[in-house]
C-alpha cells in the first residue's frame, strides 16, 4: 500500500503544475484532499465495525485503485481534482488494517504486532520514492507510476479476498470482550449487536436501501456515543503530540539551511536515515513492552517526555551534530509513541468498536496536519527555531494531561459512555 502511494505522492505537485495549475490551485486541491480525509475517516472506520473488515477493506482498496487509475489518465487539472475524490474519501486502508489486527490478536500482543505493521509500512515508504523517482525519468513517467500504483492496489484486493477469514474466531473474541469489558466503549453492546444482526439480515434478505439505512443509523449512533464518551483527553494528547512532531518537521530543511548552512541534499539523507531508524524502532517494540511489563501508559508517558526533550535539544542545537543526535533518537521515540497511543485508545475505549476509534484518531491527526502549517508559519515570523519551540510547549501540555489522568489510563477498559 504505502510503497505504491509513496511512488506517486512526491511527484504530484510537479505533475499538477505541468498541467498549468497555479500554486494556489494546487494548494486548494491538496487541502480538499485533507478535508475529505478528516471527515471520512470516522465514518469509514465506524462502517467497518458494522459491515465487517473484509468488505470494508475491499471496498476501500478498490475505490482507491480507481482514484489512482483516474490519476494516471489526468491530462487536465479538472481530471486531476476528480481523481483525488475517491482517494480522499476511501483511502483508509491502513486504519482498517490496524482495526483488523486489533480484532485478531490479544491485547497483550497488540503493541508488538502494531509495531511490526508500522515497520512494514515504513519499509514501503522508504522504497517507494526511490522507484517513483526512477520511473518519472522515463517518457510519460508520472502516468506509468500512477498505473503501477493502481495495479498494486488491485493486487492487494486480490490478497485480501484470498485471506482465510474466520468469522467464528472474531465472534468469539467479541463475546469474550463483551464479558470482560462491560464498562468499555460499547456500553450498549446488546443494542449494537441487534442492530448489527439486523443489518446483516437486511443485506441477505431485504432491499439494498433498507440495509444501507440501518448501516447509516448504526454509524451515526456510534459516532454519537464516542462524542459523549470520556475519551476526549486521549484524543487531545494525540492531537498535541501530532502537532508537536509536525512542527519539528515543518521547516526542517529551511531551518537547517539558515542555521547551519546545510544543503537540502544532506537534509534528504537525514530524513531517510530517520525513516530507516523508525522501521527498526517498530521491530523493537516487543522487547520494550516486555521491559515495561506491557504497561502501555508508562511507555507512552516516557516516550512523549523523551520526544519533548529531543525537540528541545533540536531547537537549542549549536551544531549539526546535535541535530543528527536528536533526529536519531526522535525516530525511536515518535514511532513508539504513535503505536502506544493507538494501543491506549483501543485498551481504554474497548476493542468492539476499534474501527470507529481508529477512524476518530485518524481525524484528530488530520486536524493536526491542517493546524500545524498555520502555527508553523506564525512561529517562523519570530525565529527559525520558533516551530520546534512551540512544539516543545505543546508536548509539555500533553505530558501534563497524561499525568493528570494517570488513574484512568492505568485502570484498563473503564471509560464509560454517558447513557442518554
UniProtKB/TrEMBL annotation:
Specify the Major facilitator superfamily (MFS) profile domain's residue ranges. Answer: 1-407
Protein's membrane topology: Multi-pass membrane protein
Q: Where in the cell is it found?
A: Membrane
Q: Indicate the transmembrane segments per the record.
A: 20-43, 55-71, 117-136, 142-163, 231-249, 269-288, 300-324
Keyword Disulfide bond belongs to the record: no
Which keywords are on file for this protein? Answer: Membrane, Transmembrane, Transmembrane helix, Transport
The GO cellular component terms are:
membrane
Q: Which PANTHER family match?
A: MAJOR FACILITATOR SUPERFAMILY DOMAIN-CONTAINING PROTEIN 10 (PTHR23504), MAJOR FACILITATOR SUPERFAMILY DOMAIN-CONTAINING PROTEIN 9 (PTHR23504:SF14)
Q: Which family does the UniProt entry place this protein in? A: Belongs to the major facilitator superfamily.
Name of the protein described by the UniProt record? MFSD9 protein
Q: Identify the species of origin.
A: Urocolius indicus (Red-faced mousebird)
Which lineage is the organism of this entry classified under, starting from the top rank? Eukaryota, Metazoa, Chordata, Craniata, Vertebrata
Amino acid at each position: 500500500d504505502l510503497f505504491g502511494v509513496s511512488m506517486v505522492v512526491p511527484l504530484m505537485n510537479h505533475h499538477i503544475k505541468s498541467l498549468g495549475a497555479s500554486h494556489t490551485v494546487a494548494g486548494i486541491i491538496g487541502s480538499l484532499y485533507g478535508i475529505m480525509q478528516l471527515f471520512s475517516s470516522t465514518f469509514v472506520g465506524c462502517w467497518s465495525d458494522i459491515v465487517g473488515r473484509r468488505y470494508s477493506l475491499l471496498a476501500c482498496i478498490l475505490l482507491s485503485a480507481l482514484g489512482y487509475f483516474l490519476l494516471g489518465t489526468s491530462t487536465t487539472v479538472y481530471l486531476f481534482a476528480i481523481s483525488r475524490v475517491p482517494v480522499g474519501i476511501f483511502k483508509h486502508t491502513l486504519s482498517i488494517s490496524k482495526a483488523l489486527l486489533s480484532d485478531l490478536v490479544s491485547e497483550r500482543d497488540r503493541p508488538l504486532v502494531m509495531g511490526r505493521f508500522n515497520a512494514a509500512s515504513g519499509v514501503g515508504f522508504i522504497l517507494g520514492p526511490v522507484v517513483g523517482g526512477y520511473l518519472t525519468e522515463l517518457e510519460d513517467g508520472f502516468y506509468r507510476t500512477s498505473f503501477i500504483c493502481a495495479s498494486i492496489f488491485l493486487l492487494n484486493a486480490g490478497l485480501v479476498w484470498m485471506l482465510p477469514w474466520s468469522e467464528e474466531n472474531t465472534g468469539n473474541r467479541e463475546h469474550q470482550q463483551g464479558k470482560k469489558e462491560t464498562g468499555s466503549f460499547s456500553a450498549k453492546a446488546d443494542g449494537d449487536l441487534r442492530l448489527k444482526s439486523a443489518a446483516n439480515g437486511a443485506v441477505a434478505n431485504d432491499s439494498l436501501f433498507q440495509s444501507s439505512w440501518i448501516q447509516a443509523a448504526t454509524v451515526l449512533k456510534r459516532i454519537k456515543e464516542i462524542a459523549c464518551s470520556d475519551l476526549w483527553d486521549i484524543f487531545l494528547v494525540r492531537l498535541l503530540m501530532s502537532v508537536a512532531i509536525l512542527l519539528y518537521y515543518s521547516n526542517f530543511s529551511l531551518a537547517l539551511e539558515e542555521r547551519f548552512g546545510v544543503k537540502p541534499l544532506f537534509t534528504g539523507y537525514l530524513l531517510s536515515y530517520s525513516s530507516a531508524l523508525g522501521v527498526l524502532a517498530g521491530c523493537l517494540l516487543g522487547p520494550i513492552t516486555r521491559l515495561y511489563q506491557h504497561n502501555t501508559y508508562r511507555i507512552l508517558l516516557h516516550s512523549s517526555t523523551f520526544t519533548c526533550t529531543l525537540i528541545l535539544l533540536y531547537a537549542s542545537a549549536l551544531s549539526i551534530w546535535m541535530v543528527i543526535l536528536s533526529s536519531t533518537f526522535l525516530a525511536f521515540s515518535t514511532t513508539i509513541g504513535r503505536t502506544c497511543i493507538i494501543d491506549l485508545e483501543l485498551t481504554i475505549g474497548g476493542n468492539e468498536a476499534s474501527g470507529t476509534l481508529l477512524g476518530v484518531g485518524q481525524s484528530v491527526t488530520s486536524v493536526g496536519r491542517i493546524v500545524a502549517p498555520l502555527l508553523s508559519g506564525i512561529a517562523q515570523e519570530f525565529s527559525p527555531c520558533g516551530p520546534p519551540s512551540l512544539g516543545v510547549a505543546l508536548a509539555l501540555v500533553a505530558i501534563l494531561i497524561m499525568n493528570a489522568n494517570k488513574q484512568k489510563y492505568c485502570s484498563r477498559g473503564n471509560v464509560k459512555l454517558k447513557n442518554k
